[in-house]
């Protein structure tokens, strides 16, 4: 049963969601989430999962081989998680740029900084922020979705009492 850490795509937009959790694959490629083994409850998650995997590899036996069908299914799941994570991150980035633009435009309107400008200034500014938001969202989303790595990459962890 190989284990791996997967990123939760929803954690990009919601800080209350568990960002990383551990899944184990059975012989048929089915996923099972290991309860209470996630980045909120385990301080050194990547280290602990590496130790679990090393133990499993040591105990699985010399004659073990990965089934090609199952390996392909796991790889497809990883790609799907990366695409989903990239999409959510892109939408979140777009929303942040749009909110920043709205706040900036409202601040300029309320302070009177746009009083002497032309009639189309507000429209041009709004369209500019919309285009910038889409561009940032697409670039960030494609960058995250196009990574050839598993959905969760190890994050540097600070030292704790148990390390």
Distance between the termini: 26 Å
Structural class: mainly alpha
Overall geometry: elongated
Strand-residue proportion: 5-15%
Could you give the order of strands across the largest sheet? 1-2-3
Report the mean per-residue pLDDT as an integer.
Answer: 77
Number of helices: 3
Helix content: 40-55%
Characterization of this structure:
The protein is mostly helical and 163 residues long. 52% of the residues lie in helices and 12% in strands. A three-stranded antiparallel beta sheet has the order 1-2-3, with helices on both faces. A hairpin with a 5-residue loop joins strand 2 and strand 3. Helix 2 packs antiparallel against helix 3. It is elongated and about 80 Å long.
Considering the chains and any ligands shown, give keywords for the structure.
single chain; mainly alpha; 3-stranded antiparallel sheet; 52% helix
Break the fold down into its secondary structure elements and pairings.
Blueprint: E1 3-7, E2 20-25, E3 31-38, H1 45-59, H2 68-111, H3 121-145
Antiparallel strand pairs: 1-2, 2-3
Could you give a short description of this structure?
The chain is mainly alpha-helical and 163 residues long.
